[in-house]
Design goal:
Catalytic activity (chain B): carbamoyl phosphate + L-aspartate = N-carbamoyl-L-aspartate + phosphate + H(+)
CATH architecture of the largest domain in chain A: Alpha-Beta Barrel
Largest sheet of chain B: 5 strands, parallel
CATH superfamily of the largest domain in chain A: Metal-dependent hydrolases
CATH class of the largest domain in chain B: Alpha Beta
Number of strands of chain A: 18
Order of helices and strands of chain B: HEHEHEHEHEHEEHEHHHEHH
Helix content of chain A: 25-40%
CATH architecture of the largest domain in chain B: 3-Layer(aba) Sandwich
InterPro entries (chain B): Asp/Orn_carbamoyltranf_P-bd, Asp/Orn_carbamoylTrfase, Asp/Orn_carbamoylTrfase_sf, Asp_carbamoyltransf, Asp_carbamoyltransf_Asp/Orn-bd
Keywords (chain B): Pyrimidine biosynthesis, Transferase
Pfam family, one (chain B): OTCace
Number of domains of chain A: 2
Largest interface: A-B, 23 and 27 residues
Shape of chain A: globular
Structural class of chain B: alpha/beta
Number of helices of chain B: 12
GO cellular component, one term (chain B): cytosol
Oligomer: heterodimer
Chain lengths: 430, 312
């Protein structure tokens, strides 16, 4: 593939890792960032470089989504590594971390190997596999963390299912330290959630849908924080959706517990009121919560308690979604709708561009320990050119993902990725 | 007032004027059920499909009797499970049935919201005959019709709903309907059988039946499903009967002219004692009779709805 030779002139360069926010040029030669910010040599001096006038648009590190489901191997009718990563680069992402709930489960080096190989062959962006905490995601025995790590896994998680056994979670947080792996917790007490279909509250009462109390998440967040404290392990809480979770994590961080966490655009944009029409596109786990939870999540983003915005991109076909609400699968896609919703946080005053962009670039890269999320000269170019002012209506029909289960279909939004470079190669536009 | 709705999905969507129209229509159609020849040609040539994804005897029979008394052709499809088991979605089923040109689908489904999903995809009218724990609008309408017949009004009455409110679509529909018509609703149940944030509903809530019985003009007793004990919501059916079951002794605290209602089927000896169920205050069989009239009214109003003029 052709390495980019490109000058991006007059860009607003935003590199949250270094706190850099400046207007200038970016020079990429043979796919390597040559200069960032200083004035580029004139085109006459380097006729071998293509010149592009960024016109004040934003050059940022390529986004990193630390929570996606690519469905390959096993459910290729929903998504593949090829289509999922195409969706990623179209949405401004240069790297994704894919969860292990595939078929077979990514609980062995062989599956991790397979995912990495497919990603090299067919992927549009970098793919970092997340291995399972327990064999088969069954919550009984630890998976082989060491071999998973050697094969390229960057974290372990039983995402989609909680580790209900507290002792097993303790052992995971201990054992993972030998291989420098972060343990990602899907925090949900299944006894409390008990077959619930949506957030428990006034809306579930009106709709007659079994509720999942906010406490079913927070109870497990509290447990995992205590276990992280006990073991000294590195914990990351996935898809934080409740006020109590934010409060518990804020408190743990202030006491020095090694914990980070993420939320997803739907948790800071939508509430359970969206379920009034019984449309399964809004069915997700954790469920869309109350306005009060939404505001607490936004506060957590503002004060830094929440480190990361991930999409939890969860593709499903009409077989799983176009059905009775009760029987529909949980999950929403997010890779091609997240960018404008994240930029909206800046317009809403939740944080400045650097603070908000850190949550989709250097923060997830740091948590996963991957060489992404920055714009340092001398490194391979992973960058996204964003037009923050472009207004359009989200149309899931145009998505590159195989799936259409996007709750933001039809929303007027602002902000779009117009160029995504990964490993020095222009991967979007295709 | 003119009825313009295509579907009857829930009481919560209705205005008090619409409820009034349905009850008045039912009242006028009731007379047909007293004739020697109980049939009028109002829906001749119309097709009503009963689609019951959940077992039902009385509601299905009641809708069927109602449709036949109006001369509609009726077809019943009873299936205990989602069509997903057969490899097709319920929408495939609906599309197939719709191709046969029905005018009304009467749908019961154990999953809340399913009639709404179907209504959005078909040009036929949809009547919700009970969806999950969500709504059972025709039941609430027949309950309101019964109260109105016995008391002459709904406004200002105190209605006490006792029992498993959390899992009851009958309770939800009645809460919306009765409060829209100006009645005051009190819910009485142990906290484990109340829905989350019950205070968000337009009701009063009590956990002690003794303290709220006396003020009630109407007591609606809900069926207690026996599996609630196994689900850990109750220590025992026996204890439930002691504190929340309506028996003759508790009834001594009630008003002399109190009406006792039950949507059926009853668990005699659990939520209601046999002597109360069959006693002088009970209007349970009036409810059943009114069910036919209300369902006739719904079929009539939806099939003969006024189609609003197309704008533009």
């Amino acid at each position: 593939m052709k390495q980019a030779d490109l000058i991006l002139q007059n860009a607003r360069i935003l590199d949250p890792e270094r706190g850099l926010d400046t207007v200038g040029d970016v020079v990429i030669r043979h796919g390597i960032l040559e200069t960032v910010g200083s004035r580029a040599p004139s085109p006459e001096e380097c006729p071998d470089l293509e010149v592009m006038d960024a016109g004040g648009k934003w050059v940022v590190p390529a986004w990193v989504d630390m929570h996606v489901h690519l469905r390959e191997p096993g459910e290729e009718y929903k998504e593949t590594i090829e289509t999922g990563t195409a969706a990623a680069v179209a949405g401004g992402y240069g790297a994704v971390a894919c969860m292990p709930n595939t078929r077979p489960v990514n609980d062995t080096a062989a599956v991790t190997d397979f995912i990495r190989r497919r990603a090299r062959q067919e992927g549009y962006c970098r793919v970092y596999p997340v291995g399972a905490i327990s064999k088969g995601l069954e919550g009984k025995e630890l998976a082989e963390f060491g071999e998973l790590r050697q094969a390229g896994a960057v974290a372990v998680s039983d995402d989609g299912r909680p580790v209900m056994d507290s002792l097993l979670m303790r052992r995971a947080l201990e054992y993972a330290q030998a291989f420098d792996l972060v343990v990602i917790s899907h925090a949900e007490d299944l006894h409390l959630a008990q077959g619930g279909l949506m957030n428990e509250g006034a809306v579930s009462t009106r709709l007659g849908l079994r509720g999942i109390p906010a406490a079913s998440e927070a109870v497990m967040v509290a447990r995992d924080l205590l276990l992280a404290e006990l073991t000294g392990g590195t914990l990351h809480i996935a898809h934080v959706s409740t006020e109590a979770s934010v409060r518990l994590i804020r408190d743990a961080k202030s006491r020095g517990v090694r914990v980070t966490c993420e939320t997803a655009p739907h948790y800071f944009t939508l509430t359970d009121a969206s379920l009034e029409g019984f449309d399964p596109v809004f069915k997700v786990n954790p469920p869309l919560r109350s306005q009060r939870d939404l505001e607490a999540v936004r506060q957590g983003l503002a004060d830094g308690t929440i480190d990361v915005v991930a999409t939890d991109h969860a593709p499903h076909s009409s077989l799983e979604k176009d059905t009775e609400f009760e029987y529909a699968a949980n999950g929403m896609i997010g890779l091609e709708s997240a960018l404008p919703l994240v930029l909206q946080l800046i317009r809403d005053g939740i944080g400045g561009p650097l603070e908000i962009l850190a949550k989709v670039t250097c923060n997830p890269a740091r948590i996963l320990g991957i060489p992404m999320g920055s714009l340092r000269a001398g490194t391979p170019a992973h960058l996204t050119l964003i037009d923050p002012e472009q207004e359009y209506v989200i149309d899931a029909g145009t998505f590159h993902s195989k799936a259409r289960n996007c709750p933001f279909h039809g929303w007027p939004v602002k902000g779009r990725a117009i160029l995504t470079i990964v490993d020095g190669v222009v991967r979007y536009p295709f | 007032m003119a009825f313009v709705r295509k579907d009857l999905l829930g009481i919560r969507d209705l205005s008090s004027e619409e409820i009034q129209t349905i009850l008045d229509t039912a009242e006028s159609l009731r007379e047909i059920n007293l004739r020697e020849i109980k049939k009028v040609p109002t829906l001749r040539g119309k097709t009503v499909v009963h689609l019951f994804y959940e077992p039902s005897t009385r509601t299905r029979t009641s809708f069927d009797v109602a449709a036949k008394r109006l001369s509609a052709d009726t077809y019943s499809i009873a299936t205990s499970t989602s069509s997903m088991v057969k490899g097709e979605t319920f929408l495939d089923t609906i599309k197939n049935l719709e191709a046969m040109g029905p005018d009304v689908f009467v749908i019961r489904h154990s999953a809340s919201g399913t009639p709404h999903r179907i209504a959005a995809r078909t040009s036929a009218s949809v009547i919700n005959a009970g969806d999950g724990m969500h709504e059972h609008p025709s039941q609430a309408l027949l309950d309101m019709l019964t109260i109105r017949q016995k008391r002459g009004r709904l406004e200002g009455l105190n209605v006490l709903i006792v029992g498993d409110i959390a899992h009851s679509r009958v309770a939800r529909s009645n809460i919306w309907g009765l409060t829209k018509m100006g009645a005051h609703v009190t819910l009485c149940a142990p906290p484990t059988l109340l829905p989350a944030e019950a205070a968000s509903l337009p009701v009063r809530v009590s956990h002690q039946l003794d303290t709220v019985l006396g003020a009630a003009d109407v007591i609606m007793v809900l069926r207690l499903q026996k599996e609630r004990q196994g689900q850990g919501l109750l220590p025992s059916l026996r204890e439930y009967a002691v504190f929340y079951g309506l028996d003759r002794k508790k009834l001594e605290k009630a008003r002399d002219d109190v009406l006792i209602m039950h949507p059926g089927p009853m668990n005699r000896g659990v939520e209601i004692s046999p002597d109360v169920a069959d006693g002088p205050h009970s209007v349970i069989l009036d409810q059943v009779a009114n069910g036919v009239a209300v369902r006739m009214a719904l079929l009539y109003l939806l099939v003969h709805r006024e189609v609003p003029p197309v704008r533009g």
